[in-house]
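Hey team,

Filing this mostly as a record. A colleague (T.K.) asked me to run one chain through the structure pipeline before their review meeting, and I want the input and output archived in the tracker in case anyone asks later how it was produced. No errors, nothing strange. Just documentation.

Input sequence:
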Amino acid sequence: MTNKNKPTIVWFQAITCNGNTHSLLSANSARLELFLNSFNLIYHPSLTIDKSLEDILSQKEKIDYLLVEGAISSNSDIFALSNDNTNNILNKLASKSNHIIAVGSCAAYGGIHAKFEQHKDVSGIKDNIKHKTLKNLKHEIINLNGCPVHPEWILQTLFTLEAYGKIQIDDEGRPIELYSTLAHHGCTRNEYFEWKIEGAFGEKEGCLFYDQGCRGPMTKSSCNKILWNDVSSKTRAGMPCIGCTESDFPRSNMLETKKNIGIPLEVPLGISKRAYLSITGIAKTFKIDRLNKKLMDNK
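Output structure:
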């Protein structure tokens, strides 16, 4: 099959740290090869050389999949490309595209750039694309939240769209298959969570929810089921989940658990605070020697 017969992909980088590009390059090698054999990546500012951004903007051919990495702004003082601002370039590309995918939390909601940029004119792609363009897309904009997004989520979304023409998404535009479970599901520290045995940053054992700010029990993400590099995740490596797939990311003081009289201000999704306090109160009365010994042995 020649390249012209493959669905085309344009990867547009706006206001970004390039983290999602690095993530894509860390994909499973067999999956990445299948991706490159199945799609024609006609433009990426770091990975392709045949066409410039100006070439893509001037072409008449439609773009099958526009993948956007980074936040958007109409302020050229913040970030400019091709003597234009990222808002205008995004709309020019979007008007040529059949599908648009926000790759990462900055593209979806503005992310870190929206929170810390002093001009306050930074947001996600959906807030910047013209309504007429949105109506002409073959699918609603898909948000692949994450900082960075898991590489397999990118590939799985593209393969699903190409095979079926649609993908089920939640109220925030995230693929349900990838974002319907919690980061807490599949976490190897769950027994420590159940018995309220806290660990510390970098330790192999212990829960990171009660003191370290872990957001796993309230973050929709499959990163403890679809492992990074096929072997690990933040919590498995001893880092608290920072909730980067949620629209309120980033939060202040992410690596600490906010409490009131020793009780976490936010409790896991799907349980009332009263029920949570009852369950944890009972759990705290038990001393699980096996788990405490394991925690101490691994320090």
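Quick notes for T.K.: The longest helix spans residues 151-164. The chain has a mean pLDDT of 90.
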